[in-house]
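Suppose you are handed only these lines of text.
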Amino acid sequence: MRARLALIAALAPLGVARAQQPPAWPQHSMERPRPPVEVAPAQRLPVPAPPGAIVLFGGRDLAWWEKSDNSGAPAAWRVANGAMEVVAGTGGIRTRVAFGDVRLHVEWATPSPAHGEGQDRGNSGVFLMGRYEVQVLDSYRSDTYADGQAASIYGQFPPRVNVSRPPGEWQTYDIEFHRPRFDSTGVLVHDNVALLGPTSNGRRDPYVVHPDALPIALQDHGHPVRFRNIWAVPLQP
Ligand code: MG
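From them, the structure of the protein bound to magnesium ion can be written out as follows.
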């Protein structure tokens, strides 16, 4: 799977706020049409990190990662065979360094054989700035609400296509993320398609002012999802 996300929120001229247009569909609507299913083209994996990239996980250790619970404790996920794997119940993890605008490459695989269905099937997530989730889920021949399937911006926007690979197969996200811009009054303004705010379950939360750079986080949703070959290129604002 390959997702290029333009999550763009930028200052409008003179700091004039423009209203965000929420999706026409209520959050998690089961009536919302699912994106068309397509077979993803073959990829050569892993994708090598380009010069200048920060390799956040190269397959050996979690030195760049810590628990997301503000304890500063080391990430407690398993590392084996060049991949990290969620250890259910140990909690999400995040990078020890912060990122704002960033190009992020992540390879991931859902458990095989698959267990559960819907949101209870290979669920994890990549959280830009710790709060904007690109969903990780087993959406291969498995249905859920459109704004919660793999590659959705969780609870907001479905992907354009469902190019999910089968459980256990490596797939990739290439995310180009442009952080929200807040003006000095804390009002979000923008000039392009933008997120609606932090991603959340069961409601749509508004933006709350936050620092210009924050850790990237990975979710423990109780499923042994694996990740590997994670690298980031900070972008010039
Ligand atoms: Mg998730």
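What can we learn from it? The chain has no helices and twelve strands. Residues 31 and 145 are 8 Å apart (CA to CA).
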